[in-house]
Amino acid sequence: MKKIVVLMLAASAVLFNPGYGTAEKTGFVQSDSPSRMQFQEELHKANQIRFERLEIKQDILQKKDELLQLRAHRIADKKGAGLTDVRKQMKEIRSDLIQLQKKSATAKKEFKAAMKKKNHAEAKQKMDSWLLVQEEINAKLKEKVKLMDLMIVKLKS
Fold first, then answer.
1. Using CA atoms, how far apart are residues 157 and 150, in angstroms rounded to an integer?
2. Average per-residue pLDDT for the chain
3. Which of 143, 137, 47 has its CA nearest to residue 101?
4. How do the domains of the chain map onto residue ranges?
5. What mean pLDDT comes out for the span 97-106?
6. How many whole angstroms separate alpha carbon 43 and alpha carbon 21?
7. What is residue 108's predicted lDDT score, i.e. its pLDDT?
8. CA distance 18 to 133
9. Which of 18-27, 29-38, 46-55 has maximum average pLDDT?
C-alpha cells in the first residue's frame, strides 16, 4: 500500500508541476558541439567513396571467379607460367592495402576524438585526411582489378 501511495505522489508531482523534468532544470541542455550535420558534405563524399569501393570489390570477386575457372584449365594445359611478376605486384598491392586500412582506421579515430573535443578545425582536417586515405584505397583496388585483367588475358592466351 505504501508503494502505491509513493507512486501516486511521484506521478502527481510530474503531472501537475509544469517545470518538473525539463531540460533546463535537469541540466541536460544540448550544447553547441560539432555534430555530424556540420560534416554533411564530407559524409556524403565518404558514402560515395564507400559505394565506389563496393562496386570495385564486386568487380574483383567476378575476376576472382573467372581466374579460378581459368586456373583449373591451366593445370590441365600447363599455361600461365609467366604470371610470377604479376603475382608479386598483387602481393605488394595487398600489403599496401593493409597499411592504408590501418591508416584509415587511425584517421577515423582521430576524427572522432576531435569531435569529442568539440574542435571544428581539427575535426575538419581529420575528416579530409580520412577521405584522402579512402580514395587511395580505391585507387589501389583499381590497380588490383587491372592486374587481374592482365592475369586473365595471359591465362586465356
1. 11
2. 80
3. 137
4. 99-156
5. 95
6. 35
7. 92
8. 52
9. 46-55
DSSP 22: -
Q: What is the 3-state secondary structure (H, E, C) of the chain?
A: CHHHHHHHHHHHHHHHCCCCCCHHHHCCCCCCCCCHHHHHHHHHHHHHHHHHHHHHHHHHHHHHHHHHHHHHHHHHHCCCCCCHHHHHHHHHHHHHHHHHHHHHHHHHHHHHHHHHHCCHHHHHHHHHHHHHHHHHHHHHHHHHHHHHHHHHHHHHC
**Residue 96 grid coordinates:** 599496401
**What's the whole-model pTM score?**
0.69
Sequence length of the chain is: 157
| Average pLDDT over every residue of 2-13 | 55
Calpha distance 32→120 (Å, rounded): 11
Q: Cell numbers 593445370 correspond to what residue?
A: 75
